[in-house]
Amino acid sequence: MSAFEPELFGLSEYIPPEFEKCPNEYREPDLKYANCVVSYDQDRCVLLRDLHDAKEFRKFFLAYVPFILATIAILFNIFFVVLGGVLFANQQVGSKKRYAFLLSRSISTLMALTLFYIVMIFWKTGGFQYSSATIFLLMGCLTFLTLTGTYLAMTSLLYIAIVHPLWYKQKVTLVKCLIIISIIWLVAIAFSVCVGLFGATLFYHDSAPFYCDFKTCQQPIAIVVVVVLSVCYVSVMVFYVCMLIRMRLRHATRLVEGRRDTIVSITTGKQTNIRAMYRLSFNLGVFAVSKCPILIVAIVALAHLEHLATLGNGYKNSCKTYLNGSLYLQVEILASIAAIVWLCGMIVDPVVNIVCDPRFTKLVKQIPENVSYTFSRCCRRGRQVVRTCEVGEASDSEEF
């Protein structure tokens, strides 16, 4: 019996002559790759192995793991939004400013997670296409920019509350904070839509609804995106460190110049401010750890942009997938690293805020153990808990 013919009774699957050197790699669905034209320096068996590696990696690290992490993240953030909404509705006007920014950040996270589920559905039903790639890039950029804007605003307001408390009380109103949040969202959405629409052409420029040349469109946009993300990331870290140093110097100067009877009050105020600063530092730490890999992935992608852009040549078909298996694997490794770290940050962020905020922790401790309570019952009980948790006036820095 020939090696190219199936054995009797179907005991062995047919292996085409193109893959007879690698029977262990060949699978029945791979028959469609037998007619693909390969160059003289390419090995069909190596291409088949790379393709299978890409499919196995994609199945686990771009499907199962992100789906589980996204589910955990969306549950944690829904829980945080519910608690934050209760606190926002029952706190003093001053404290509402901080919770407005926290709720805005969590809403941004929930929107991104919803878009992530949509991408997963698109991928499972029809594979990655221009539309799904657009949504993937849009949601990543949106969360990055909204978080950056939120932390810059929160750091600025905390600094004003510490250094200029009277001006903060009189001039920084809840309405102005809501306006700042709206501006952050408008800028983030506008930039993210542009990144999604034009960035997706890098991998699907032949199937995109408009033409975007590599040299005049794709590459400049990629450079702008990496520069903007880098500036946003560094500015958040640098601004916080500068504010922390300036605050410490200010308190040291006040202690030297102040009278003895005011030293105790200055020291007490410093301890309160330091607690508020450390609480914000935990949030920024999560931001730094979770967003740094995304920035690294963007820089690596920019360095290999011309090589990755070859995936956009022609329409997607079985031969294109077969010939570019190793390249698809590289892209999927970059995407999986960004997605997993991004989702882990979304899980840790609400946990850090709940643990570091006394009002959140007191509210959580009072939640009934019966998890079958309805949302409205939890809200009504939350109102009573918040009232019992209030212990006098909070200082301006404690609002953050």
From TrEMBL:
GO terms of molecular function: G protein-coupled receptor activity
Q: Which domain of life does this protein belong to?
A: Eukaryota
Tell me where it resides: Cell membrane
- Bilayer topology term: Multi-pass membrane protein
Pfam family for this entry, one = 7tm_1
Q: Name one GO cellular component term.
A: plasma membrane
Q: Which CDD domains match?
A: 7tm_classA_rhodopsin-like
Q: Where are the transmembrane segments?
A: 61-88, 100-123, 135-162, 174-201, 221-245, 280-305, 333-356
Q: Which InterPro entries match?
A: GPCR_Rhodpsn (IPR000276), GPCR_Rhodpsn_7TM (IPR017452), Put_GPCR_Chromadorea (IPR040435)
Please report the stretch or stretches of sequence annotated as the G-protein coupled receptors family 1 profile domain.
Answer: 79-353
Region forming the signal peptide: none
Q: Which Gene3D superfamilies match?
A: Rhodopsin 7-helix transmembrane proteins
* PROSITE patterns named among the record's database cross-references: G_PROTEIN_RECEP_F1_2
User: Does the record carry Transmembrane helix as a key word?
Assistant: yes
Q: Which UniProt keywords apply?
A: Cell membrane, G-protein coupled receptor, Membrane, Receptor, Transducer, Transmembrane, Transmembrane helix
Q: What is this protein called?
A: G-protein coupled receptors family 1 profile domain-containing protein
Q: Which organism is it from?
A: Steinernema hermaphroditum
